[in-house]
Amino acid sequence: MAINLSTYREELEEMTAEVLEEEYLHGSGRKATMELARVYERHSDLTTLNTAVELAGMGAPTELQRFAAEAYIGDGLKDLTDRKANLEASAVVQFDGEAVPYRGVRPRLMNEPDHARRHELHRLRCEVTEREINPVLGERMERQ
Predict the structure, then answer these.
(1) Residue 95: beta bridge partners?
(2) 131 partner at 20 to 30 Å CA-CA among 5, 24, 63, 67?
(3) How high is the mean pLDDT of the chain?
(4) pTM for the full model?
């Protein structure tokens, strides 16, 4: 059955809006966990390899073909994308007797006037990145 391009565009806009909202709510701290997997599951018909191949075969506009290909890859990475974002949101860096939220380290680094303290905070953040986040990023890159 041929893909209806008008319907596909409408569903694409809905999915894109949901992804952007999920990223915004989580990134801004308004939502504790990232749940892109749920968005991809709701729009699973947009993210299959068959959909991407069919769009290419019917000569659909390049942007729709590109979206379908990227959505297929994103669907395969959704769980690791969620896990990485949720690790960043929950990780802490122990600094100067205080548990600094991982995502709060960068602004703190920019505002720390003392070079030695900046250096130590950066070093500690790198340790957390290496230990907790990089394994997920490595797995994500391998899968991608």
Answers:
(1) 98
(2) 24
(3) 95
(4) 0.86
Q: Which two tokens stand for residue 47?
A: 């993210």
User: In angstroms, rounded to a whole number, what is the distance separating the alpha carbons of residues 82 and 124?
Assistant: 24
Q: 115-127 burial by CB neighbour count: b if 16+ within 10 A, else e?
A: eeeeeebeebbee
Instruction: Report how far residue 4's alpha carbon sits from residue 126's, in angstroms, rounded to the nearest whole number.
Output: 48
What's the CA gap between 100 and 60, in Å, rounded? Answer: 49
Evaluate whether 23 touches 34 at the Cβ level (below 8 Å): yes
What does the pLDDT look like over 2-35, one tens digit per residue? 899 999 999 999 999 999 999 999 999 999 999 9
Task: Write the single-letter amino acid at 21.
Answer: E
Q: How many CA atoms lie within 13 A of 103 on its CB side?
A: 12
Task: Name residue 76's amino acid.
Answer: G
